[in-house]
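Table 4 source record.
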Amino acid sequence: MTADLTSKTTFDFVTVLSQAAAAYQGHRGTPLSAEILVNALLEAEKSAKQERLTYPFESLLGKWQLCFATGTKKVRERGTIVLGKGLYVPKFITIHVSFNATLGQDSDRGEISNQVEFGSILLNLTGPVQYLGKKNLLAFDFNQMLISLFGRIVYNRPMGSGKVKAEDFYNQPIAQLPFFGFFLVTEDFIAARGRSGGLAFWIRET
């Protein structure tokens, strides 16, 4: 089923995440603590699993600014992976992710662009994506790197560190590729868990 943001089960965490997004963008309110934001993301993930929510690839298309992310750490005694505390992305760094569909071909295929801006330096990584709608999984691989300085491109070449070549990407098992498992997608923000187990929260670029 698709998400109903007016339902009682989703109201609390959607409200919290909306407040966090507004505060981060400087529209209104004060930033929420990392603990509150992580709890809201975990509640959103739990709700998506319980309600078996699915989101179409089209709902992810566009440009999103990374607002908050958690790392992970391994517990030696148990060998398990647990979430880190999480951090807001500092305002002096801007990180965007963009998803675009491949025109005229499979509707669940496209391109990802991950762009990091720090002062006059811009780093942009691009590559193919494949979306598994039934699982809300978006697999990707970066195969091109661009670096610009003061608006001038100083480096633009294929990446030798990509796990697979572009032409072979769609034949690879998802388990062998980086991926995001999206558990909340709205008009204003999206949230996912990465392959390493960390959580990420993006706000739509306006």
